[in-house]
Design a protein that fits this description.
Blueprint: H1 2-40, H2 58-83, H3 90-120, H4 127-138, H5 147-176, H6 182-199
Helix pairs in contact: 1-2, 2-3, 3-5, 5-6
Amino acid sequence: MAEGAHHHTPYFASLFSGACAGLLVDITLFPLDTVKTRLQSASGFRKSGGITRLYSGIPSVAIGSAPSAALFFIAYNASKELLSTKISNPMVAEMIASSIGETIACFVRVPTEVLKQRTQARHSRNVRNALRTLLQVDGASGLYRGFGITLCREIPFSAIQFPLWEQLKRWWTCYQDRPTSIWQSAACGSIAGGIAAGMTPIL
């Protein structure tokens, strides 16, 4: 019983840490994302709201961000563990695992993004109104509009970021002869994310 509980601990840790990290990042960067969405809106920046109500649409992020991040890390860790027994190169296993994680997470992330953008651009008064209008006009399939494009954007980024993050942690662990701390892991993640962003600017 104890052994079984211990075996599942990493997955619960992945769920909790992934959910918290995803929610924190999305809420922190939400105003910048709102400005970007309004700048890209066909209605124009000012008509879409300008710099007012920068947190319009935040409920959809609060509801969807934590589950999608948690799903990603659970799928990523489970896939990585399985693939590591079949693929000798850890970075290749991590690249495939991150792609699987992104695909699963997008089933929650894409509807969240659709509702968020509709509210940010003032196409709807609030998230509830955005959902009602979308279902009336497009049906449930409207929630997944842009699913393929989102995958094409997210998978290359993660396929670079996560193997690089894992490799940086391995190098650091080898250098100091002990596992990386949470802050060292975060530093590795920041470096990996910056490099991935630099390599995928067109996406």
